[in-house]
Amino acid sequence: MKENSFLEGQKRVMITGGTEGIGRSIADNFLLSNSQVAICARTKEKIAQAKDVFPIAEVVDLSDLSQAESFSKKVVRDLGGIDFVILNAGVHGVPIGEESTEEKFKREAHAIRVNYEAPFVISQSLRDDLKKSKGVLVYMTSQHAKFDPSKVPESAKPYAISKRKLEEFFTKFAQDPENDGILVIGIDPGPVDTKLREEIRIKGSAELSAVAQRDKDNKVLKDPKLVGKIIYKIVTERADFNQGTGGYTKPIKSGDIVRIDEHYLQ
Ligand SMILES: NC(=O)c1ccc[n+]([C@@H]2O[C@H](COP(=O)([O-])OP(=O)(O)OC[C@H]3O[C@@H](n4cnc5c(N)ncnc54)[C@H](OP(=O)(O)O)[C@@H]3O)[C@@H](O)[C@H]2O)c1
Q: Member of which family (predicted)?
């Protein structure tokens, strides 16, 4: 892969949830450009394998906000600063079978912690370091953020609410003069064939599972490897896909949200 001008010199990159799915593909693309990449996830076996590839791979559960903060600080300490923060890890939070009211509230709170509160904590923890490097902060959103929560199926509400809060928070974060110098980019990858989708298909409520199965059958799910490569291009070129030129040349400004559609897949 050709190294672009912004990536001249080794870049220091932190990606939450880099063991699989979209995050893994973004991480692999950064590795190919000789960047120093730190990732985290919960599953010990996957992190053990990742340690062969990434300079930093840690078992972290982002639903514990103190772990989210200490991982961020460790990465900056060990890499000597940070150029890219990719807030990728996310869960759908579908209910698995029958649950009590208490279990329902715990599940919902968990999804909101992982999808919204952990990115919030990490952004607070790393903003001075990102300002110093004039770095890039990327967060992963979804079309669910735009849905009216009252019209979303009950089991998808925590996901929709957390992504909506995430977009609202980072839109304000990008506008805050305190954060000048940081390029904040939201990415909505569209439907991608990953574990998150599989969980909805297999474990989700009948309603959600049917929609997820239909997407799979209709082949609307994109390859995470391809989507990761597109995201890598957007964030390293600091530009969006330009249909006119067929390249990543469309100016991007802090606070923009890029929603990846089929035009990007050429
Ligand atoms: N796939 C889609 O169609 C789609 C659509 C719109 C937006 N997105 C967003 O894109 C992002 C990536 O999704 P994906 O589909 O690539 O998901 P994925 O394949 O399920 O991968 C999620 C990654 O995050 C890690 N993770 C999950 N919970 C974690 C926690 N509590 N602490 C630390 N790491 C955790 C997972 O590892 P462990 O499970 O081992 O922790 C894994 O590495 C998410 O924010 C998602 O909301 C995805």
A: Belongs to the short-chain dehydrogenases/reductases (SDR) family.
